[in-house]
Amino acid sequence: MTKRRDAAIQMFNVYKRYGAKGALVDISLAVYPNEFVFLTGPSGAGKTTLLKLLYLGEQASAGQILVDGMNLSRISRRRIPYFRRNLGIIFQDYKLIASRSVYYNIALVLEAAGETQRLIRKKVRYMLRSMDMEKKIDVLPPSLSGGEQQRIAVARAMIGRPKIILADEPTGSLDEASAGVIVGLLKDFHNRGGTVMVATHDSALIRSGSGRIFQLERGRLVSAA
Amino acid sequence: MALLMQRTFRDMRENRFLNLVTIATVALSILIVSAFSLFVVNANELLASWRRGVRMLVYLERGLSRNQELAVKRRLLKLPGVTGMQYVSREAALQQLKEEMPGQVALFTGLKENPLPDTFEIRLAPAATGSHAVLVALADRVAGIQGVDDVAYGQEWLGKFANVVNLLKLCGSAMGGLFMLAVVVIVANTVRLTLYARREEIEIMRLVGATDSFIHLPFYIQGMVQGALGGIAGVAILYLAYLYIVGGLGHGIPGTLFTPRFLSPVEYSGIIFGSVLVGWFGCYLSLKQLVRH
Ligand SMILES: Nc1ncnc2c1ncn2[C@@H]1O[C@H](COP(=O)(O)OP(=O)(O)O)[C@@H](O)[C@H]1O
Ligand SMILES: [Mg+2]
Fold it and tell me: Closest Cα partner for B279 from B17, B13, B11, B25?
């Protein structure tokens, strides 16, 4: 393998244990800037757990993780929010705030980052227009369809212009058409230079891409193509 | 900043009922605390005004010579706090008594001899009457002077009144502390309920890069606003009650020249500020607990 640029994501002999059980065992991998990779494997293999380690939703039990050049074991609790602003995260269960409008759900990212109201309004409007969701701006998420909610989740992940997007089963519960829209948005992000890691057990989704595939089985990395 | 205020007041609006109940309870606590303060402040002033009027009467032993009397006078004048004195002979005292009680002339005519002693009436500097202990110490020193038979200055009732005021002050401080504690608990509880209702939202805020201070600040402001509004309401209610009572009194408490005053701006601002601080503290307790979990 030729020498490449510094990795966007790198894991060295990472373990994650819940009690005595190893959810992840001796994981080493590297994802390079502007790659679009898949993390696959049956349910319970550890895909979600691996993504959690990457955004510091959980601490690794052993091993080292580098994300965007930062050693995650060295980030103080206080710095975690700033670290997370470099990532766009799409959660398996959307994690939209049910009692807040679509606008607020997306604007929250920019408010937390301290941007001005005017700029926030402009960016959120623009983002929603580009996803053809402008009419839903004042709607509460629970009254949207699954595909629409996932689009809002993607919008929230992208609004802060992160370098890396981590997506957990982004098409998991969507019909084909909605899934196609989401995949299109992720590909756009990739084409603009972003790095994408998608965890999925959806083989159709994997076939639709051309990136490398990391296969997990019972917490172990069994193949990296 | 504007955004922060917007978030805070949106939160408060959404929990309107809870916030109103909290503010009302804070107001009630502050009303009680400030009513006690008002009472103590006025009792202190009443006490001070009585003390300013205190004259010390020094009764001389019988049969002192002119020189002995002068010696007593010199020694009295050397005492700290004594600013002047007036000699009242026993004859003058009896005459004065007769004039003051014209209906009782028969009482005096029956006397074989004048029972009254010669007296020095001492005027005291304000410093000497400022505290009961100082007054008692001075009286002891006066009584120790050779040729002095007895000293009178209304120590009994003045001391008793001071004791009562001190007791009330103690009770008031304890009650005030208790009610301030109640405010802390109330605000802490409101914040805890709000945090609980919002736990999912807060978790999501963390995940999208919100700092603790971004998440916590609206709660702190909310706690302080509750403290401020409750404090202002409590003091305002007390003021209305004060106006009502003083209006009923007319000119001062009957039999005195004393009109109760309201808390000074410094005093009531202090109480409101305390209420704000206590609101902040209640919030701090809840959030500290949240971070630990
Ligand atoms: N918080 C947790 N506590 C205990 N066990 C967990 C926890 N999270 C995940 N696991 C376990 O770790 C394994 C991997 O789970 P997960 O990463 O969610 O798999 P996947 O996303 O591939 O379906 C599973 O066996 C799951 O039961
Ligand atoms: Mg999963």
Answer: B25
Which numbered atom of ligand 1 lies nearest the CA of A41? Answer: 22
Ligand nearest the Cα of residue A52 is 1
Give the integer Cα–Cα distance in Å for A26 and A62: 9
Residue in A with minimal Cα distance to B215:
A112
Domain range summary for chain B, segments of one domain joined by + = 2-49+159-292, 55-153
Distances (CA, A) of B115 to B60, B62, B112: 12, 10, 9
Sheet containing B56-60: order of strands: B82-88, B119-124, B56-60, B148-152
> What is the number of the ligand 1 atom nearest to the C-alpha of A169?
21
> Does B52 contact chain A (CB < 8 Å)?
no
pTM for the predicted model, two decimal places? 0.76
The tens digit of pLDDT for each residue in A26-71 reads: 999 999 999 999 999 999 999 999 999 999 999 999 999 999 989 9
Ligand 1 centroid, distance to A23 Cα (angstroms)? 6
Domain B55-153, CATH number (from 3.40.50.300, 3.30.70.3040, 3.40.50.1220, 3.30.70.20): 3.30.70.3040
Distance B196 CA to ligand 1 centre (A): 26
pLDDT tens string B47-63: 777 776 677 888 888 88
Distance CA B80, CA B151 (A): 16
Look up residue B103 and give its DSSP letter: G
